[in-house]
Every structure is written in C-alpha cells, then in structure tokens.
Write a structure and sequence with these properties.
Layout lengths: L8 H14 L1 E2 L4 E2 H6 L14 H4 L5 H25 L32 E2 L6 E2 L17 E3 L7 E3 H8 L1
Antiparallel strand pairs: 1-2, 3-4, 5-6
GO molecular function, one term: nucleic acid binding
Protein name: SCAN domain-containing protein
InterPro entries: RNaseH_sf (IPR036397), Znf_FYVE_PHD (IPR011011), Znf_SCAND3 (IPR057560)
Length: 166
C-alpha cells in the first residue's frame, strides 16, 4: 500500500490481488492471469499501443485524454476517407471471373499418414505406451514410473511419486 500511496486497505487489496495473479504458477506453467484471460497482464501505459515518444510527453490524465481524443478523430477521418474512395460493387462486376473447376493443386499433394509421437515426461524419449501418470496425466514409459502393488496400470511418474512420498 505504501508503494501505491494508499492508506485504505480496500484500495491496497487490488494491488495485492494483482501481484498474486501475476506470479508464475509451476503447475499450470503460466501465471493465473494468463490462464484466466489468455494474455499477459497489462500494467500502466508502457504496455499500451502508444509509441514511446508519445508516452514520454504524458504526465497527467488530462494529457492522456487529449492523446485519446486525437487518436479517435484521426480514426474517424481515415474511415471517412476510405469509405469515399471505394467504388460500388456493381461497377466492378465485369472484372469478376468465376472458375467452377476443382482445385488443381490438390491433385499433386502427397497423402502420407502423420504419426504422432509422444514423449515420456521422465526420460524425454519417444514412447508408444498408452500409460499416463495417475496424477499429472502425462505420458510415461512403464519402466520410468512407480506402479502400485495391486495394479500395474496405476502408475506415477518420478516427479509425482517424489511429491507424494517426500
């Protein structure tokens, strides 16, 4: 809260939550924010679309508002200009050529079967075993895991085995 110059815990809570959601999670191999929203978290103007030369001139909210207004007026002017330059489709009808034939490029293409290979999460070598770790569900060789005494199909990779029995 001191970093953000706030004395109310309710305002500081947002910063704490953001810091927590920005931390890397080793289980899901990304941050919680990325897992939820599908993109990296954006903080401040440095992650915005504005160029650096414009960013260094912005110090107040009023300056930022002026930049936003300028961008909006530029976009409107460009849209109007594009709409005026376009010709109606009916004028260009004579230029459209329809070809009802088949795609000629498909005939010469190779049709090979694609073999998807899986790699063992322990030794990182190719595996054709249908076994997966009971906890993390990653592919594993029979000899790279730890099977339970009652069922050989109930197998744990070394990583999950160590986390349970340590």
């Amino acid at each position: 809260m001191q970093d953000n110059k706030s004395y109310r815990w309710s305002e500081g809570l947002h910063f704490v939550q953001f810091m927590k959601n920005r931390a890397y999670h080793c289980g899901i191999k990304r941050t919680l924010y990325e897992a939820l929203f599908g993109c990296k978290p954006k903080l401040g103007l440095t992650t915005s679309f504005l160029p650096e030369d414009v960013l260094k001139d912005i110090n107040t909210e009023e300056q930022l508002e002026k930049v936003r207004e300028r961008v909006q007026t530029m976009e409107k002017a460009e849209t109007n200009q594009i709409m005026q330059e376009k010709e109606p489709v009916s004028k260009n009808m004579h230029k459209i050529i329809v070809d009802n034939g088949l795609n000629r490029h498909d005939e010469g293409m190779l049709t090979e079967e694609i073999f998807v290979s899986d790699t063992c999460c322990v030794c990182l070598k190719e595996t054709s075993d249908a076994l997966a770790c009971k906890m993390c569900r990653r592919k594993i060789h029979t000899f790279c895991g730890h099977a339970s005494k009652g069922d050989e199909m109930d197998i744990l990779c070394n990583i999950c085995f160590k986390t349970i029995f340590v």
